[in-house]
Design brief:
This protein has 444 residues and is of the alpha+beta class. The protein is built from 18 helices and 9 strands. Strand 2, helix 2 and strand 3 form a beta-alpha-beta unit. Helix 9 packs across helix 10. Strands 1-3-2-4-9-5 form a 6-stranded mixed β-sheet. A 3-stranded antiparallel β-sheet has the order 7-6-8. This is Sugar ABC transporter substrate-binding protein. Keywords: Signal.
């Protein structure tokens, strides 16, 4: 859903730390820990900093196995579901964490946190902490970095057209602005249209939420072709067809990033992490951007919530070492280390309140850091819409079946964006798929 995850998933190279004892990740001696990790840039930074800092301070050797996103998800699922104990720590998200905890695959962290006052659990942003807490009230993962979603726009283009946006616009105001600022050379807005539960369905589901829709009611009634879901989807499809980027049915995060950077679109609704890329020193539009909260209709907020976090396998025989690594990687001291050694713009942010109080970080992040912090703080993973939900999640439904359901429905939506099918037909097909999923849960 974010740039880091999307670009990381495209890299098909297996990276192993110099300290790694082998591709299997097992062994390593008693004073060691085996970590299975996604190959995103921030994690690669972590890998580079570990031996000279964490290992030097603790004597604990870290054996990394680092893989592209799709590969690492499969390998984590295999190892943790079998409780093989080959890996002590793995990168998981707020999508997997509650499900893994329910299945008994993760070690709860509450006792470790209670004994580790320096970690400062209270500093973790509440929505992030909540999203990594299972139904039993225990915390099962600690965040490495987090994100929400917001609207990014070209201030210079808006000023030239005499168009303004409030800090918390409605989707209707965004659509009106897209129509007013668009020119033959610059499209009004970029919205993901590429198939995938983490592509088009991520932003679209936030629109569904704020329009009053939901995938399922609290008692597992499928709502994919309900009036609110249909209204939101028609709005989204019409907006991207009328004023969106060229090639929208194939456009994901990376394509919208390129469109925005190259000045081909005037607005973009997507992950907060995108702001750092658009405001980077080498960005041609650095300093030309404005930011607003995620657009709303019937809800107070609508931004999504995502975090890459570290979980400890329940079968691990090195849980104490595993916690020391997690505490270090997710702690304030690690952020300080990154800032001083790699630059404050490379901070794995989006997880701690204290991050947004650091003068060095505030200076490097420009005008968007406060808006990103507000977006994450206002995210409501347990209550993202106007009605109660049967499972947690904002841009996804926190059940194993959603990866397949969301992907299949997304293919229908992308087809509607391409003009190959109608929204009504797309959602009627999606309703049938959702009803099959709901039947598994009714009466539980």
């Amino acid at each position: 859903m974010s740039s880091i995850r999307t670009l990381g998933a495209a890299t098909a190279v297996l990276l192993l730390a110099s300290a790694c004892s082998g591709a299997g990740g097992g062994g390593g001696g008693e004073n060691s820990v085996n970590v299975l990790m996604v190959n995103n840039p921030q994690m690669q930074d972590l890998q580079k900093l570990t031996a000279d800092n964490f290992t030097k301070e603790t004597g604990i050797k870290v054996n990394f196995t680092v893989l592209p996103e799709n590969d690492v998800r499969d390998k984590i699922s295999q190892d943790f579901s079998s409780q093989a104990g080959q890996y002590d720590v793995a990168t998981i998200s707020n999508y997997e964490t509650p499900m893994y905890a329910k299945n008994g695959w993760l070690a709860p962290m509450d006792d470790f946190v209670a004994k580790d006052s320096a970690f400062d659990q209270a500093d973790i942003l509440e929505p992030i902490k909540q999203s990594l807490t299972a139904a039993d009230g225990k915390v099962y993962a600690q965040p490495f970095y987090g994100e929400s979603s917001f609207l990014m726009y070209r201030k210079d283009i808006f000023e030239a057209k005499g168009v303004t946006l409030p800090e918390k616009p409605t989707w209707q105001q965004v659509a009106e602005a897209a129509a007013k600022v668009a020119t033959p050379e610059v499209r009004g807005i970029c919205l993901r249209g590429q198939p995938g539960w983490g592509q088009v369905m991520a932003p679209l589901t936030t629109v569904v939420n704020t329009f009053g829709g939901t995938w399922f009611t609290k008692d597992w009634q499928a709502q994919v072709n309900a009036p609110e879901f249909k209204e939101a989807t028609k709005f989204y499809v019409d907006l991207v067809r009328n004023h969106g980027e060229n090639g929208a049915p194939q456009a994901g995060f990376a394509e919208c990033l390129n469109n925005m950077t190259q000045g081909k679109v005037a607005m973009w609704y997507d992950a907060t992490v995108a702001a750092g890329l658009l405001e980077a020193d080498d960005s041609p539009i650095k300093g030309k951007l404005g930011f607003t909260q995620a657009p709303v209709v019937k809800t107070d907020s609508s931004g999504w919530l995502y975090t890459w976090a570290f979980g400890i396998q329940k079968a691990s025989k090195k849980q104490d070492n595993a916690w020391k690594f997690v505490s270090w990687a997710s702690g304030k001291g690690y952020e300080e280390l990154v800032g001083k050694n790699l630059g404050w713009s490379k901070l794995p942010d989006g997880k701690r309140s204290s991050t947004y109080q650091r003068p060095e970080y505030k200076q490097s992040s420009g005008s968007f850091s406060a808006m990103a912090e507000a977006a994450i703080k206002s995210a409501k993973p347990l209550n993202p819409g106007v009605q109660e939900r049967p499972a947690p999640g904002i841009q996804f439904v926190g059940i194993p079946e959603f990866t397949d359901l969301g992907t299949q429905v997304s293919q229908q939506i992308s087809s509607a964006i391409a003009g190959a099918t109608s929204v009504d037909d797309a959602l009627n097909n999606g309703q049938g798929l959702a009803e099959k999923v709901a039947a598994k849960y009714k009466g539980q």
